[in-house]
C-alpha cells in the first residue's frame, strides 16, 4: 500500500476531475457516467434528494431555482447561501463544493475499490485566503481529512514538466478556466521549478463569454421576434428562460471552436405563456468579437507578470495552455501574435481540461500520508522502521534516513535493494548502532517508480521481517516552496495599510508586529473593540484591498479595561496551503487571543448598495476623464484606455443588474467594482503630478502678485527662496517634496496677509457666510454686527475677538463613524 497521497482533484468552477498517479503517469479516473470530468452542479428535488454532476447541470435548464452551478466563485463569502425551495434546504458554497468532492470520492471507490480520505485539491492562484480556507472546510465536510491545497498553475506546470529534462527555462502558465484566470511565470532549473511571479483574476473566465453571448446576442434576438417584457438576467420573472439561454450559449460556444457556426435551438415561453422555439445561428466571428475584451484582460495580466519578473516574451520558452477556453483557435491565434498577444510558442501537448487534475496527482505522489509513529515498541521478535525521505525529487541518488526499533539490534544491519534496475542495485549492509538510526544514499532510475526492498539481517546474517518492507521513490521535477500570490497585511486607522507578508514570499511564512489601540475597551460599560482587519491586495489605501478577515476582541472577552494606546503584539502565520493563523497578545492583560481571526467575513453585497456604489464610482471616473482631457496627461490616458478595452464599466453595469437575482453575479459585481476603483485610483495617481505642478505654478503666481501689492522688503527674499525650492522639487519629480514646498508658499501668503492686516478681514468675511450653520443665531447676529463696526473703524483687536467667538459658535463635528480599524503602528 502506498504511503503517499497519490490522488489529485481539480475542483473547478464549471467542471471537476480527479486523477491518480500510477508510476510516472497521472491517469484520470472517469466518473460513473464514463466521463473525465464531473460538472460542478448540485440539485435538490422535492423529496430532499441531492444530485451532483451531469444530472444536476441538465436540470438547471428546466429548474434553476432548485439547482446551483458555478458556486466556486462564492467560496469564502457569507450572506447569500443557496436555498433549494423544492426540498426546503439551504447550503453554503463550501457545502456545495463538499458534495462535488464526495461525488469524486464515490467515483474512485467504484472504479478502484479504494475509499480515499486524502487528496490534493487545487485552487486558483488568485484565490483569496478566505476562499482557500473555505476549500479546506469543504474537504473536511467531504471526508478528506488530509487535503493539502495546491495552486492550479503549479499543478499545470507539474503535469507538463514532471518527467521533462528542461534546464534553466522559463515557462508561462496561461490558465483560463470557467470562472478564474491565472498567469504564472515558472522557472525550471536543476530538476526543480519555482513560481517566479503570478497575476490573476478570480472573475475572469469562460462563463463571462457565456453571459456576453446571452446578453448581447440571444436576448436581442428573442425580443426582436417575441414579446418577453424586460427579458434580462436581473429579472426574476425570466429566471428559467435565461438559464436555458445560458446553457445553450455554453454548448454553442464550444461547438464554434471547431466550426464556423453553431445552431442554437431553445424552447421558451413568452409573456402569455405560449411556447416558441428560438432558432439562432451563432457565428464564430461574433464569439471572437465578444471574446476580445476578455483576452485583452488576460494578456495585460500576463504582460504585467512578465514585466514584474524582469523578463520579456523572448525569455520565455513556451506558454502552457490550461482550461477549456484555450481550445479556441481565435484565442490561440491572438496569444501567438507578437503585437496583440504574447508572441510566445504555445504548448498544448496536454489536455487543457484535465491537466490540472493530472498535475495535482503528480504533486500528491510526493506527499507522504504522515502516519503517526506507533506509541509503543513493536512486539517481541518484530521490527519496525521509521523512514525520513522525499518520495519524489530530481536527484537520482536520493538520501534516506531512518530508525529501526525492536529487540536485539546488536549486530543487525539494514540494506536497500532496487531489484528492477539493470543490473539490480544494492546499497550494501548498513550496520545499526544501539539506537537503530541510519542513513543511506540510494540509486534510482528515471521514467518509473523505483521500489526498494528493505532487508534487515541479524548478527548471524539471518533475514528478519521488518515493517514496512519497501520504500518507493520517483525521479521527477518537483515544486519548491510555493509563493504567496497576494500581499497580506492589516488595516490601520486613517485607512492606512501595514503589509506584513509581501506577495512572492515563499510559504510557509510568519510575521510579528507591534501595534497600539486607538480606542479604549471598557468591560464594565461594554464599549469599544479591538478590531484589526486582515487585508489581501497591493493597494496603499486599506479600503481598496480585499478584506479577507478580521481579528476582533470584544469587551466581554477581556478581564479588565484596555485603555487607548495599549500595546498589542500580532502574529500572522501562513502555511503552504495559504491557510492563516493569527494570534494577538495584549500585554496589559497578559493574555493571548488565539484563533480569533475570521476568514469568512466578505458578505455578498446586496443590489441596492452595489448600484449606489457603482453609480458613485462611475461619476468619479468621469471626473477623472475630464481632468485627464484638461491636463493632457498621456499616462492617465493610457490607464483610461485600458479601462475601456477591458469593458470594466459595461461589465459592472450588467453584473449589478443581474445581482437582483443572482448571488454569483453580486459577488462578481463587488469584485469588478473593486477593479474599477483601483483602476480609477491609478488614473488619479497619474494625474496627481501634473495637477500638483499646475497647482504649484498657480499659487506661485498668486503669491508673487500678493507680495508685489501688499508685501514689504522682508517678504521678497523668502518668496525667491520658496520659488526656487518649488522649481527644484518639480525638476526632481518628487511629489511629497513639492506638496511641502506648496504648503510653504501658502504659509508665506498667510504671513503677508496677516502683517498687512488683511487676513483678519478675510477671515471675518468667511465666517459671516457660515452664520446659518452656527448654534446660536441671535448671538451670531450680534457678533457679526459688532464685527462690521470694528471693520469699518479698522479696529483689528476687536475684529480678532469677534472671529474667535464666531468660530466657537460653529457646530461640533460629529463623532467618527465605527472605525474600519482600531489600531495603529506601535513603538
Automatic annotation (TrEMBL):
Residues 805-827 are annotated as: Disordered. SUPFAM superfamilies: Actin-like ATPase domain, Heat shock protein 70kD (HSP70), peptide-binding domain. Keywords: ATP-binding, Chaperone, Nucleotide-binding, Phosphoprotein, Stress response. PROSITE patterns: HSP70_1. CDD domains: ASKHA_NBD_HSP70_DnaK_HscA_HscC. PANTHER family: HEAT SHOCK PROTEIN 70KDA. This is Molecular chaperone DnaK. It comes from Actinomadura viridis. The lineage of its organism: Bacteria, Bacillati, Actinomycetota, Actinomycetes, Streptosporangiales.
